[in-house]
Amino acid sequence: MSTEPNPILAALNVRNITYPAKFQAVEHTAAAELARLTGGRAVKSAKPGQGVNVALAPRDWAKLLPKSKAAEPGWMWLKIEDNGTGEIIADAGSLLYAAVRLLANGLNDQLRGKLAAGLFIQATFPWHRPHWDSCLTQYWRSIRKFDRERYVATLAETGFTHVEINGLQAHMPMEDSVQSEYYPQFYTYTPGFNHFVDTPLTAGLWQPHYLEANLNNLKSLAALGRKYGLKPGVCMFEPRTLPERFFQRYPTLRGARVDHPFRSRLPRYCLAQDHPITKQHYRAAIQNLMKAAPDLSYMSVWTNDSGSGFEHTGSLYVGRNGGPYMIREWRNHDKIAQAAGESIVRYLANIQSAAAEINPDFDIILRLEPFKLEQDHIKAGMNEHITWEAPSLLVRGYSLPYAHPKYPEMSGAAGSPLQTEIDPAERAALAESRARGAEPTLQYAAGSTACFEPLLGVPYPRLLRKKLESMRDLGIKRASALGGINNPQQSPYWPNPTVLRATQFTPEIPIDEVLLNTARGFVGEKYAAKLVACWDAFEEAVSWQPPVMLFSGFAFTWQRTFDRPYVPDIEAIPAKERAYYERHGCFQHNNPGINDLGKDVLFDVVTKEQGLKAAANYDKECLPRIDKLIAQLAKLEVQTAAEPSVQAVFIDLLDRARGYRAVCGSIRMVAAWCAHVYGYLDSTKAADKRKHEKALQAAIDAELVNTQNLIDLLEADRTEFMALSAIGNNTFCYGEDLPELLREKIRLMKKYRHKKPRIDKDILWRPIPEAKWPDFN
Fold this sequence. Notes:
- By secondary structure, the chain is an alpha/beta fold.
- The protein has helices spanning 7-10, 25-38, 93-105, 109-112, 148-158, 208-227, 244-249, 276-292, 333-356, 375-380, 425-435, 461-474, 496-505, 511-543, 575-582, 608-639, 644-682, 686-716, 738-752; strands at 16-20, 41-45, 52-56, 75-80, 86-90, 119-122, 127-131, 162-164, 231-237, 254-257, 269-271, 298-302, 363-367, 386-390, 441-445, 478-482, 599-600, 603-604, 724-725, 734-735.
């Protein structure tokens, strides 16, 4: 960050800046930032000074603000007269910092002209948080070249009001396991209470040095949040499992089995949630956590997945089950759903009331998708501080609403970058929830988490603006960005954060003006329109990308889509040669996904017909658009060679387009594999088999080129276009050795590409590698 004064702000003649003597951290941060930008001097005082006063609203330093304006939460007030006096006031800490940053580069000439008379800004979303923050706290937290403080500052500048703080300190969690078991990796994200604090019930289950390291990490993130005015919160999978050694000691506390029986080798259980001891444990857990962060403002509860779940709910992986205290046997499904839903509300209320003893405004927020059968009973018990969140207010179960705009036969687009319109029926769901006093949170996408993984900085600014405007028009007050904004410091010319900020604070500025002004800041007037055209072309390619279940969403990396070799018979490659990628994937020894790209556990992920259609649509609609963009950006790289600062912007976007091309190429390979391996195996005529073999070989040729292009892009190392772990590979993030893995992929594809297509469908019944079935013959 430059230490030189901002030329625009220097012209405001601000020389003296005053902030409260007994200041909150963000008041000092905002005043210091204004001093840096203007070249002025910041001093603290018990009362307003003669220059520009910077303070939070409760100080009552807003002497010039018309009282009628500040009727709703989420506002900022900026008044700077020509003589360098005035005031910058906000009712939330993050908005105070955002107001100062908005002065630097977020106002157009018309709005800047209002500063002398006073500019009042009402935030579009007064409650706005990153949700499952991928780089700060979740499974990309080991990403290289990530600056936590700059990221937190960018959150506040962009218009977020909260920050997520429950990330593990280490690369992977401590979790009981057995040999060759994959399952503990599911505990690396959204970590629950047990990874930060213990209670009298769980004392000694986790090593104290492990808990202390994680708790210190949480405290440091909370402190960063306070510095920039962001309220701390946690996103946890709860109720989370306890180890079997615990239940051997306390067998009557055993609740539901919640693990995925295919992905785990140990049954995993949660506490019986209605037991009085369990209730005391959770009250102690939240209060112990809040000793470290007394201002903790919310807890987002994700559940019924990744080693967590509520008893007797219908979406548990092993089906409804639980301890003996909630409902007696032989009740019908409706009664069980009612009992389970009401118990969930009691669980939420127990934690909320315990937290409210420390912070009366504490909210507990339930992710609602898992509860298709229990939803009505859960909603009936909600209120102002016990509420819910979802990618659509119409969710009921995991089958999400909204169709893909280009491929309407594909459903489940809710919350994705491609869902920009909102069904009017959501208005009724919103009104129903508000009638109970429960303000729901609507989730949207701002980055690449769960949609364009493992890429960084994919631009879709107009789609983002349309979605945010639809949320605003619906009347949404609480918004959450899934994955946060990834790693914006390594995506310095990414337009999405600017669009977020403009929609939050200056929605009256049209999107065309927002993008053109942003582009001017990056490349100047001469090339601004061309840069906007390139963003639009990128977005157009994105909108035409055919969805392929798992691979085009959150599971691109855990399926090792970049580095696994694509050959007609995957198991023709000896297990030892496959180990380089299988050991890091979400593969179990008997998972059909090992030898069949269209399967994962018992799911049919990609059928022959879906593969044929997706591959054809990649060839017709998506890849030509991205190839055309790449060609245009390559020309611009050459044309701007005499202007290095301008050229750097086009190089950055070119490399991101090439990275996106590599992702699309590999997903296209998956689709083609499913189309033609299945097609070959289903065919009864030799001519048809030859046709499928020829098409598969053509796809392999294309993927070999695609992989070599990816190696070249990575080794050029001009742009941080994808998430790479600084520590090493895991299921959710590639390591810095990716080029080596890709070379091994190429070697194996060339060596085994001419084998006949084959899939061993008996893989389900294989023993674990450390054992052999006895010979019964």
